Amino acid sequence: MERMNNKVIFLVLFLLMITAFPLLNAQGQEKSASIDKIWENIYSQDYISAKKLVQKELQGSNSESLQLLSLMEICLNGLERYKQADESRKKILSVWEKNHKKAYIEENYPLNLATWTRMAVVTPNVLVLGAEYYLPYPVNAKKEGFYYHKFTAYNRFSKRASKFFKLENSPKTEKEYRLFEISEEGEATLVKNYGNTLPDFRDEMKDVMKYLKL
User: Which superkingdom heads the taxonomic lineage of this protein's source (predicted)?
Assistant: First the structure.
């Protein structure tokens, strides 16, 4: 009898699992479709519609999703609601520190998890994304200097990255904050020297756009 009960329990659990998988998959597809729709609105510079979709997605269990919070900051910057965007940035850093910082440091600063996107500037041919490092990112293993922000220009038709920029402060920059274009070969071309003060992120984006003549 006990063996029979175990079989019944196993069968019930198995049925629950196989019926849950399509539901989870559907939920994942639905979320992916929502994210795609948000980006479509951003590409169209319809930040109001994008923001409404983000707000809807942030409800409930998604309230601490870094991806959605990042999209919210992008929308607020796009709408030039800079005070709200700065508050969104603070929340992102708070959530990251609470939920992700420990693992990030233990895994030795994985580059693919090092930044979040704060701004998106859309032009007819080029999309420029501006991102900030959750923690200043070491320029080398000895941590002799750090990167603070990065900007990437994408060809909107091929969707390939074409230009890269990083804000650096290190002995190489004489302890000044300097924005460089970084070539695929790793060569650095100075875009602007900001001196001893960490520049405003939005000012950097303007300088990148000016440098790209966009």
Answer: Bacteria
